[in-house]
Amino acid sequence: MTNIIITGCSTGIGLETALYLKDKFITVYPTAREQKDVDMLKELGFKYAMKLDVRDPKEISSAIERVLKIDGKIDIWFNNAGFGQPGAIEDIQTDVLREQFETNVFGLHESTRQIIPIMRKQGFGKIIQHSSVLGIISLNARGAYNASKYAIEGLTDTLRLELKGTNIYPILLNTGPISSSFRKTAIKKLKENVDIDNSIFSDRYKKSLSGTQKSVPFNEEAISVARVVHKIALSQNPKPRYYITKATYLLGYLKRVLSSSLLDKILIKIG
C-alpha cells in the first residue's frame, strides 16, 4: 500500500489532504508542530500521527525512522508546512524574513535533503513541494512570503535536474487562493512583526485588519489540493508541477505573455 508523510496537518490543506487520502486507502502519516494538534489527529483516526517541527532536523529524522520501522519504505513526502508573513518589504526586519524562511524554505530543504538518501536507496519516491501562485508572480505587501515561494521554485527546479533518471520525482504545487486558516495566521504575524502605526502603509494594513478588503476571486476549497495530491500518488510518471485554482492558470499565463510593466499594472490592482 502507498504511504505518504504530510507536514503541517493541524488545519487547512494538510488536514484536508490527510483526511481525503485516508479514505482512498493510502497509509497517511500526518504531522503537526504542536502536540495538541497531534492529539487531534489521533482522535480523527490517524494512529500514525506524529509531532514534527520542520525547523528541527532531529524531529525530521525521528519521523523518517518511525515510518521506515513501520513500513520499510516512504513513497511520498509532502512538504506542506508553511505560513505567510505579510508586510511591505521596508517594514519587514531581517530577523522576521529569516523566520519566514526557517519554516517555508529551510525546513522544506532539510526535509528534502534527509528524504532523498532514503528514496535513492529504495529506488523510487515522490517529493511534493507546496509552492504557490506567489512563486510565479508577486503581490504587494507579501514580499517575505513571495520570496520564500520563489526560493522553493529554484530549489525544486534544480533538484529535478539533479534527480533525472533516478525514479525520484520532485513535484511543485502552485496553489492559488484556498480556504484555510492561512489568512488568520497571516493577520497574527502582521500584528506581531510589523509596526503598523508608524508605517507609510498604515492605512492599508488597518484596512486588512478590519476585514473590509474585497473578496478573493477564484477561491477554492482545500479539497482541490487533496485531489491533486491523490492524482500524484496514483501516477507512475507525475508532472513536474501542478497548477491549482483558476487564479494560478490565469496569472501563470499572463506572466508568460505580458511584459513586466504590463503585468505589474495588473498585479497592483489585484494586490
Walkthrough of the structure:
- This protein has one domain: 3-Layer(aba) Sandwich (Rossmann fold).
- Helix content is 52%, strand content 13%.
- The chain has ten helices and seven strands.
- A seven-stranded parallel sheet has the order 3-2-1-4-5-6-7, sandwiched between helices.
- Helix 5 links the parallel strand 5 and strand 6.
- Helix 1 packs across helix 8.
- The relative contact order is 0.14.
Notable features of this structure?
single chain, 271 residues, alpha/beta, Rossmann fold, 7-stranded parallel sheet, 10 helices, 52% helix
Short description:
This protein has helices at 12-22, 35-43, 57-71, 94-122, 143-162, 182-193, 202-210, 223-234, 246-257, 260-270; strands at 3-6, 27-32, 50-51, 76-79, 125-130, 168-175, 241-244. Helix 1 crosses helix 8 (223-234) and helix 3 packs parallel to helix 4. The chain has 10 helices and 7 strands.
How are the strands of the largest sheet arranged?
Answer: 3-2-1-4-5-6-7
The ordered H/E elements are EHEHEHEHEHEHHHEHH
Beta percentage is: 5-15%
Terminal Cα span: 44 Å
The chain-level structural class is alpha/beta
CATH architecture grouping: 3-Layer(aba) Sandwich
Q: State Rg.
A: 19 Å
Under CATH at level 1, the class stands as Alpha Beta
Helix-residue proportion:
40-55%
Profile the largest sheet: 7 strands, parallel
Uncertain segments are none
Q: What shape does the CA trace take?
A: globular
Whole-number count of domains: 1
Oligomeric state of the chains in view = single chain
- CATH topology: the name is Rossmann fold
DSSP helix count? 10
The total count of strands amounts to 7
